[in-house]
Write a structure and sequence with these properties.
This is SnoaL-like domain-containing protein. It comes from Aliterella atlantica CENA595. InterPro entries: NTF2-like_dom_sf (IPR032710). There is one protein chain. By secondary structure, the protein is α+β, with helices and mostly antiparallel strands. It has a single domain, classed as Nuclear Transport Factor 2, Chain: A (Roll). The protein contains three helices and six strands. It has a six-stranded mixed beta sheet with strand order 2-1-6-5-4-3, covered by helices on one side. A hairpin with an 8-residue loop joins strand 4 and strand 5. It is globular.
Length: about 150
């Protein structure tokens, strides 16, 4: 049996940063998947709950074709590490543009997204992975449209 290394706060911060940078640049799904738990992944998003990497892959392919010029800016980040997992509460400001055909122009969106994550260490790679990702609230900023 493999002994997993204790999870550090610095590692968690790096994973959170990497996740949002990759979302901003619409990284290929092959770069996103290693950040997610290969087993028992659950993602509760405003529009859908995803289970597993295949459902994430389909969802991601859809959203990168809807939203563009994305920027994620961390507003708050609280990390609670235990030996084998970390619990994260964060608020990220998400700004993006979208175009709904046949509109003449795109529209800019801006939200504060309150989220809770559970992060574990992969027994296969020893890298940190997101196993639970819950969006508790998606609050539009004043003057911006809702989803």
């Amino acid at each position: 049996m493999t002994t997993l290394t204790r999870i550090s706060e610095a590692e968690v911060r790096q994973l959170v940063t990497d996740w949002f940078v990759k979302l901003d640049v619409h990284a290929p799904v092959e770069e996103m998947l290693p950040l997610l738990a290969p087993e028992n992944l659950e993602m509760q998003l405003p529009e859908v709950t995803l289970h597993g990497l295949d459902e994430f892959r389909s969802w991601y392919d859809g959203v990168i074709h809807i939203f563009f010029d994305e920027v994620h800016t961390m507003q708050s980040l609280d990390i609670n590490t235990a030996s084998q997992q970390a619990e994260v509460q964060l608020v990220v400001r998400w700004e993006a543009s979208r175009w709904n055909a046949p509109a003449a122009n795109s529209e800019r969106l801006a939200f504060d997204a309150a989220q809770r994550w559970v992060i574990k260490r992969s027994p296969d790679t020893q890298n940190l992975v997101i196993s639970t990702y819950i969006v508790d609230a998606l609050t539009p900023l004043e003057g911006f449209p809702n989803l």
